[in-house]
Amino acid sequence: MTTKQQLARDRLRTALARRSAVKAADLAMELGVSVPTLHRLLQESPEPILVAGKARRTRYALRRPLRGDTADLPLYAIDETGRATLLTRLATVFPSGCWMPLRDTDWPLTEEERDGWWDGLPYPLYDMRPQGFMGRQLARGAHQSFGVPENPNLWTDDHILFALSRIGTDLPGNLILGDSACERWQQDCHRPADPWRESETPARYLEAAEAALALGLAGSSAAGEFPKFTALRELSGSLTPHVLIKFSGADASPTVTRWSDLLICEHLALDYAQRLPTVVSARSRIIAHGGRTFLEVERFDRHGRFGRSPLISLETLNAALLGKDPCDWRPLADALVAAGLLSVEDGRSIHLIWWFGRLTANTDMHLGNLSFRPDQARLSLAPVYDMLPMLYAPLAGGELPTRSFEPPLPLPRERDTWLIACQAAADFWDAVRADMRISTGFRTLVRDHGALLRAAGERV
């Protein structure tokens, strides 16, 4: 071997470690050798080199160990019948990021992503990371055994990948990363827990709420800050036994009473949002037991006992596909329609839902509160969830804010959409005023909201 070739061999690892997805011609030029010589050096190298792609699309990268292991992580997808299949494989690479090809899948992707190259965590996995109340509980239970921070907001992508590959069995959507997590899921399927019978559900919910607050649960990691847990319950006519439960405190303080009122409002809002044309909401019900109010919401990413479907939030889609500044849902929906990723009908539905939320005093309509299902490289709108009048939520210290409801008015081009949403929102406020499960104080507070909206509708 010539001195030049030996020098190229010595520099090969450093050159690969500086950048991933490098072409043979570019790598050969950097090392000062011919492409045939480079190919020989790559074959002889003891380094764990990833070769991906065919013909002109072939790229090279140096595998980056995940907790000392450079092997691929398999990614499994569970369909609506509960059958798991190998979707693809993931490898971590230097200097950062991953290789995870997703050709011939339902996920909308750029051409580079179809080849498998990601600067960070692949976006179909991003909503699986620990988030909110349940994410903090999961991190608290796992941080010592997995050597990760107790605060999940401090987790790196590698922390997330390692944890998902070990305990990520019941996360949003239908993906399971790693053989260890898949084996745990298979064991759960072969020895399934019995759903709680309807007669025992209230008492079981009370026990689960107290356990969630005292010890934390290492189950799902649904986003959000409201105390919550997941469960399996029997209910005649339900589409799945899988439910997400939010719950209030157990005392009669003004703060707890307000949170109870808002949970009931969320149940009503989901009902009235579904009365909008083409809009579907998550199915919900209210259970009161032991001084607590429970909002039970059926998981629309679950089908029957074992089936699942994929899910992705607008927040993640915006970061991955649009790259726009965070804003309200409407311009992002329009951008997805313009890009051919979303149907015109779903785009209109998002406008209706957004106006309904604003007219029902929902001040927490962040991008994580709207989700989609990938379908043949496009998107379809998932059911509505997390729709409640957060304008009236207690402050962080528990104080009840004094606020007035001022319904936003539309621009002329949105008048027709606004009027449809306004009618549904006015009916919602009338239902809140009449619902005896809601405290007298809150019903009095919002008693004129329906009339206020109808009067505004006559002026626009």
From TrEMBL:
Record-annotated HipA-like C-terminal domain positions: 220-392
Keywords: Kinase, Transferase
Signal sequence range: none
Gene Ontology cellular-component terms listed: cytosol
UniProt-listed InterPro entries: HipA-like_C (IPR012893), HipA_Ser/Thr_kinase (IPR052028)
Molecular function GO terms recorded: protein serine/threonine kinase activity
Entry's family note: Belongs to the HipA Ser/Thr kinase family.
Name of this chain's protein: HipA-like protein
Organism in which the protein naturally occurs: Thiorhodovibrio frisius
Organism ancestry: Bacteria, Pseudomonadati, Pseudomonadota, Gammaproteobacteria, Chromatiales
